[in-house]
Give the backbone structure.
Amino acid sequence: MAQLSLNQIEKVYPNGFKAVHGVDLEVRDGEFMVFVGPSGCAKSTLLRMIAGLESISGGEMRIGNRVVNGLAPKQRGIAMVFQNYALYPHMTVYDNLAFGLRLAGTKKAEVDQRVRQAAQLLEMEHLLERHPRQLSGGQAQRVAVGRAIVKKPEVFLFDEPLSNLDAKLRASMRVRLTDLHRTLREAGQPATVVYVTHDQVEAMTMGERICVLKEGVIQQVDTPTALYRQPANAFVASFIGSPEMNIHAAQLQAQGGGIAVLLGGVALPLPEAKAQRLGRRDGEIRFGLRPEHISAAPRNAGDSFAVPGTLRTLEHMGNEVFVHFDIGTVPMTARVPSDELHGLQDLPRGAAHAFHLQMDCCHLFDADSGVNLLL
Amino acid sequence: MNARSFPLPRYLALFTVAVLMLYPLLWLVGASFKGNAEIFSEVGFWPSRFDFGAYAKGWKTSSEYTFATYFLNSFAIVVPRIVVTVISCVLVAYAFARFEFFGKKLLFGVMVATMMLPLIVLRLPQYLMFKQLGWLDTYLPIILPSAFATDTFFVFMLVQFLRGIPRDMEEAAMIDGCNALQLLWHIIVPLLKPAIISVVVFQFIWTMNDFMGPLIYLASVEKYPVSLALKMSIGATEEVEWANVIAISVVALVPSVLVFFAAQRHFIEGAASSGIKG
């Protein structure tokens, strides 16, 4: 257990391509940090740089109090779980777990004790004598995690470890890994974890803090709730949350004493609190509203604003329905509990309906930079 | 393919081809029981009698040594040569497949180019060199060049095989604390096992069958390997008892055949196991 700090970390490939642009990040001792972003955002590269599998072109990286820039992977006190597990096929599960300890010259009795302890923790004592080819995907995954745990590293690195599992197993492994992190913390050996994923659901459910990356630049580092409620920019806003936030070009205009947002030919009045925080009163912006902040009927709290829309399609999810409709020519998505449809399900395609927008939950982003204007 | 619905014609065709390919071998075994007259007059391979006398006589040879000596000589060449071939070729292939170094592409190209070189071109300079070293009439000229990965075909084969193995396991092992040599020994060599076994098999068969090398470098009969001894048993002066020569040819084939069949299992076992889920 140790904290991990990245200071102006850069990665430039020999062909001149700059993959990581001066990343600054502190991962606290015992923290579960998730790197998330679309493919090609350099999240895996960054992780491999922490692991020592990729060289660091610039900046300073510390694990604990040591600068590790020039250190070999084995000297960094890290353990890594790979996307395809990377178990050694010619060794039994036991030997897979024990391999690193034996290389380090650990005494036989201690190797045995640590391997069995890890196996017990992951409920895989019965797998110890098997070879990797005799394991299912989920079992191989557990062995890969076990191989990291036995080493008692200062930092755990996970590189999309669940992406090869089917959806159901992925969900249960998610809980298992989170559980494991808690268990280790309660057992007095908190594990600092850096977990890479492209799946925002994994990021939101597992991370204590999330680092959102895009093209080698950190967009925002914060708790899941903060990322969801106060996204730093339009990219983070659209990346976090499912279905995606509705984000569209709009214009600001003065209306009465306040400000309205002109979207698809409809003027949406901006709540007083938001209007005050906004530094401008007109011009181009991007308007964002999460699907769950649009409902089919007026809210009881009375804080919604009715907008005429044209119905396109409904997607039934069981407990909720994704409603796709247009405001003027602007496509919008609403996420409505299935018992609050208020007859929407019986309307034909193209029917007019008044949708209710919760304007005090809206986000306004700069039209060019995408920066959140209300923070 | 509709061949699946007509298994009989397919098997018949395969059987015919197999017999055609195997017939010389069957004939060889049959002829080892025949007398000179029968060998040259009968078409069929089935002998009229089973007389193992030719095997006994062939084994004794006309020289002062039995074939036991020649077989031991052959193994004294083959075994060390295989050992040095495997070690040198794996090391060189590992370097080409996994490390970046100056001039790598050029060196690899040069190495592959030497495969095109007719071996006969090298004979004279090599002979003169080994003569200067005083190594004539020893096994060194036959074994030692292989210690420098000169069997470039094997290097090429191993490099191709290694390129097909994902690096994740090596990266995992690096994090587990392996240095480059430990990586080679604990991870690469076990993964390369199927390819290494093919190197062993090919080198065994090729060296067992090598005639030119021993012919050029070995002078004393007591050092002859099987391939040379076989030729020697076809005497120049007296009339040849062909059955003896043929019988010992059959025996000479046995080691290569055994090695091949012993290795076959490992090819399949090695190819089927992988720790990577794709």
